[in-house]
User: What shape does this take?
Amino acid sequence: MAVNLLEAYAGVWMDSPKELIAGVRRGDENAFQLIFEQHHRFVFRFLYGMVGERRLAEELTQETFMQAYKNIGTLREETRLLSWLCGIARHVALHSLRSRPGKNQWIGIDDQEVAELEDAQLTPETRMLNTELKTVIHDALAALDDDKRGVFILKVLQQMSYEEIAEVTGFSIPKLKTDLHRAKAQMRRLIRPYLEVRDEM
Amino acid sequence: MKCEACLGMMDELIEGELDGSLAREATAHMAMCGPCSQLYANLRYEQELYRKYLLDVEPTPAVWANLRSGLEQKKVISAWQPQVQGWRAIALARLHVTPRLATALVLLIIGLAIGILVWRTTINAPRQQAQNPGVGVQPSSELNRAGTNRDSDNADRQGSANHNDGKILPSSPKSGDREREIRVSAVGRAGRRMIERSLAVPAVDQATRRAEQQYLSAIEILSRDIKRRRAVISPALLSQLERALSEVDRNIAATQKVAREQPRDPVAVQYLALAYEKKIELLREVTSW
Assistant: This one.
């Protein structure tokens, strides 16, 4: 209980990124844990969107934070911590996707995983539609190429600004806008039929 | 604005990337144009679906545990260890002794002294019970009477008196009897020390945890009160408070870790209590604003 409460307080009264990074550089484990607490969900979700598999996304989240810990000394602008972490996560994800055997590396979303994401209060029909929709989005994301998928996740799903995404990816803003436009069009093509069925219901 | 221009801006409007004046123009157009308004609603709905897809996905708590053990295995976090060992230096460096803190410290020491007295009293009863089987003759009524004594020395004396009543020693002590009295008394003390040793560690640990729970309850109440009043506290003060609290929290975490590792070290426990006291003091000050 004590530990949970302390964690809760740590969440309420957060240090500035600058102070936390300085703490990690001094070897302060608590500061690193606070950074992890603040950002691991965002990083995990980005990685889940990128690789489409929960367990792999968790492993890659660990790898991301491990690399972040080792290379914290190279971070120049402390206020850009999240962009920096996402940059590492993106490299980790791309490395994992490219090092796996077979070109289409995405694993199909399994029913158990989808079931875990469902809201228990929904009606069976809505739940079935949601499950189907998640599978459709999952498959549509898998069909995007890695760069477009990354931009789509960061912008549409995680609502980062173009400037932040440019920092994460190293791409120019015009390229990001073009990639996003194409990604959205492709996603829409794949998802539209499902949405029409849903609207009819 | 025409529909074509509005359609071209719709994505940027949804993403929140559109300039204020253009966003107002587009919104005004959609308020009058049914098809554009419908398309905008569809796009917003689509966006929500995408966002929900990721929001439902939560990482498991095992991620941190695995990350930590991974860092330990690769010896990346060896630098963390000296800090734990040098906790006294950290605690001293982080605690700025103010007059208020000094007062709290004095109060804490008084509290600890009282606590130790009470604790010693509570272990008197089992001590007395263990003392008697070694002697083997004290009646149960006498045991109960001895168990109610407040001071340990008194209890010791009472114990000796009880042995007299229990017919080990005659009622009028002579020189030989006195030696026996001393011997019995010594047996009693040795037994007491053994029991004291076996009871002390869990008792201290339990007492520490109990005290910690009380501190945490107080902190929770005060924090809730502050949360309710956040809106009326000025941002500058709030930011100062948050900085101070995060420092105190870190101090609590550091001292807590040491106290967990060395539960028998009274200094570690004292530092932990002090860290909690500081947080309570800080929160109390804020609630009095």
Observations:
- Residues 79-86, 133-176, 179-188, 193-199 of chain B have pLDDT under 50 and may be disordered.
- The CA atoms of residues 234 and 242 of chain B lie 12 Å apart.
- Chain B touches chain A through 51 residues (CB under 8 Å).
